Amino acid sequence: MASHAMKLTLERIALFQFTSAHCAQARAMLGWSVEQLSREAGVSLEAVERFEAQQEVQDASRLALAYRLEAEGLMFFPGFAPGRGMNVRGAKSNPVGQPDFAILE
User: Fold this and answer.
1) 22 Cβ partners below 8 Å, 6+ apart?
2) How many angstroms separate the CA atoms of 38 and 69, rounded?
3) Residue 84 pairs with which residues in a beta bridge?
């Protein structure tokens, strides 16, 4: 189990890397509306709208948004559009058709 200090460090990294532009871009990539992201992340609709408008929101709301979008396989780095991570959900289509599938088994 991660220590409290490690948890705080990881949260600070997530807060630094996840921007309001990332949020809007990630929603577009997933085809989600503001309302759907609000429901999925458990964050108020107003908080999502404020964040995407580059207004202040609570760190807990930003983390909830970042973590929910990361759960869909997206990764966030400052200065870059969101991208799909490798070896996470949504990164590859059905692996059975891949030439190295036997190695994975």
Assistant:
1) 66, 69, 76, 81, 82
2) 11
3) 74
Strand partners, 75: 83
Domains and CATH numbers, the chain: 4-81 (1.10.260.40)
pLDDT in tens, 74-99: 988 888 888 887 544 444 455 556 55
CA geometry: angle at 65 spanning 64 and 68, to 5°? 80
Q: Which residues, given as ranges, of the chain have pLDDT below 70?
A: 1-2, 86-105
Give the whole-angstrom CA distance, residue 65 versus residue 78.
16
Q: Which single residue is written with the structure tokens 């807060």? A: 15
Scan for tokens 């949020």, then name that residue: 23
pLDDT the model gives residue 90: 47
